[in-house]
Amino acid sequence: MPARKRKSAPAAEEAPASPDAPATRRRSLRVSSSGQKSKYFEPESESDGTKGTPKKGRGRGRPAKKAKFEPESDENGDGYKEEAENVEPDAEATDDEFDEDAPPKVTFIPLPQLRDTGGVEYADDRLHPNTLAFLADLKANNKRTWLKSHDAEYRRALKDWESYVTTLTDKIIAADPTIPDLPFKDVNFRIYRDIRFSNDPTPYKPHFSAAFSRTGRKGPYACYYVHVEPGACFVGGGLWHPDGPALHKLRASIDERPARWRRVLNGEGFKERFLGISTGNSSSGAATTGGGGRGSKGGGGREEEEGDDGGEEKALRAFAERNKEGALKTRPKGFIPEHRDMQLLKLKNFTVGRKVADGVFTDVRGQEEVASVVGDMVGFITHLNRIVMPDPGDDDESDEDEDGDED
Q1: Do residue 360 and residue 344 come from a single domain?
Q2: Between 399 and 376, whose confidence is greater?
Q3: Does a structural domain hold residue 401?
Q4: Are 93 and 61 in contact (CB under 8 A)?
Q5: What is the per-residue pLDDT across 72-126, written as a single tens digit (0 to 9) for each?
Q6: In terms of DSSP H, where are the helices of 219-257?
Q7: Which residue ranges does the record annotate as region Disordered (predicted)?
């Protein structure tokens, strides 16, 4: 059906604006002026409204919050009033904190200076008192930030310890020729602790230590151990937590060759220095015991004679008491409960140690005393190495010794 034509309205008359009117003939109400002056026009004089957005200050403080506009209770509903809130900056905000043009603030933290030597020169054959003082400070401030700020002091103490270990190695080799001359890194223990599986969160060891063996601080051989810690210095040696095969060999030796163990643990210098047993209290010429055989796993040889309990057996008990940490609560598999050396068979550590004064490491002749302690351990260390890592011919010689004891 064709669209109807609209009648054209007279030119003089204008139709009221309606939604149905064409877009070309529609007039916008926004174009027509209302004749009223808006309140947002600037006033003609100062007497007219003075309210407006507050001036933005040029200060360097925190910028003021913008004005908030709220509708007035006006009849027309088109009036607004403005209300500024907290125009003043916070008291805590200073001009310097928010000054974009000012240069950045730099804080200089002075690094601690090296401790004075006190007139004592550093020497290769002894430790400087500053080295022990550094270890004491490290124990009191065991934190990464502290050590980082005292790195120069740590480097100086480590260098002093390296020179001491290097010169001490020559004296240990003189006492035990089986010890090779190894680099410092192979015998020294680092001060960094592995805290992944430890309840102690301190990241560093507050001591210096080194182990001397045929393979250095690592390996299956028994070693000589030197520990420097203010108030807890000591010299020791042996096998600490040997692996399964080595522990099996040690227990077999205790069962098969008890006489050799008694002879080593009752050495005059060894027993007095490491077990606290005076040589005058030991029974000289006491009967030694023989072997019971590997297959028996029984009494471990002949029964000891009466009255010998205060001699050789006392040294065995003292050695077992000093190594009871980590020992088995029950007998090891394969041995009868009545075994005479059950106290030794339960052990998992075979070590000895002697506490020394701090002054031994700072004295001019201190290394001689350390070498003397090491010298009393040579027979014990050699005995352990013959069991866990025997040299060619060691087993044959030991068998001959056992046969001689039996006679």
Answers
A1: no
A2: 376
A3: yes
A4: yes
A5: 555 554 544 444 455 455 555 555 556 777 788 887 777 788 999 999 999 999 9
A6: 244-256
A7: 1-112, 277-313, 388-407
